Amino acid sequence: MPVPAELAWPILERIRLVGDLAISPHGISIAAGVLIGAQLMLHRALRRGVARREVPDIEAIVQSLITRTIVGGILGARFFFVVTHLDLFADPLSWLRVWEGGLSLLGGITGAVLANVPFALRRRLSVPLLLDSVAPGLALGIFIGRIGDLVIGEHLGAPTSFVLGWRCSGAYGDPAAPYPFPGVGPTTVQGCYDVALHQTALYDFLAGGVVLAILILLERRPRFDGFFLVAFAVLYGGGRFLSDFARAADRDLIGPLTGSQVGALCAIVAALIWVAVRRPGRRRPYAWLPPDFRHPWDSEQTVTETDDIQA
Questions:
Q1: Does residue 119 register a pLDDT over 70?
Q2: Quick one: DSSP state of residue 256?
Q3: Per-position DSSP letters for 14-37, written without gaps between them
Q4: Torsion of CA 38, 42, 48, 49, to 10 degrees
Q5: Domain spans of the chain, in order of start
Q6: Of 138, 272, 136, which Cα lies nearest the Cα of 213?
Q7: Residues in CB range of 226: below 8 A, 6 or more apart
Q8: Is the pLDDT of residue 55 over 80?
Q9: What's the pLDDT band for 52 if we cut at 50, 70, 90?
């Protein structure tokens, strides 16, 4: 017997423009998340700085980083999805058909970071400081970007009586929806079905908002270079690891784990190893010094070039 869900709304997979031309709410929300998150990153970089020295024209540098972020993010998101779903592709040429769907959020984050590291090192920028500025913008981008997943009814899991279980109340343009679960195939990841399901995009949406709020609260005190990156990796990575157990798709990459769970675990371990090895908390004064934000490079104190490139 179906279990009544506390949450319900209709889905809209495409917004029709002219004839067969249509756009996806998913794509719109991702674009909005990237643009708004980038603005938050720029704001933080202007206050925090991008190296432990005076750097002129930070805004132009951040704009260059954002461009590389978009390109690297798309390539990384596609690469990670293809690697973890090779059975879905008939030939290498199909790897390039991004418009057919198939992107990984964690792959996109990794690709964006890797695309920017060489640029940062060439400019003698501080990678930890840059990633600290990225962290709150990334959480905000995830929060906004997941709205599109909720609109199109994607990333569904199994039936549930959980209070955040979601029931599709209909599909715009499809009077036959909702359909009997599980639809086509033994599991489903998107669609409008007649039972309450785990909506893991909703869990990720909430996680993005909670992580953003926590990062903003943590900004009230001085923090070592790289602190916010580590906090984001542990908080969001931990949340994603747990929520993916409710997903119906992408399972069994390693044992019962999804590709995103493996990626989240790797990010958490890498962040904690970096803290243990580099011990960034010993380096003072901290770059993030609220409420004044008077940086060490604003005084007569000098730093070495090695300190500038604390990667």
A1: yes
A2: T
A3: -EEEETTEEE-HHHHHHHHHHHHH
A4: 120
A5: 7-172+191-297
A6: 136
A7: 128, 129, 131, 132, 274, 275, 278, 280
A8: yes
A9: confident
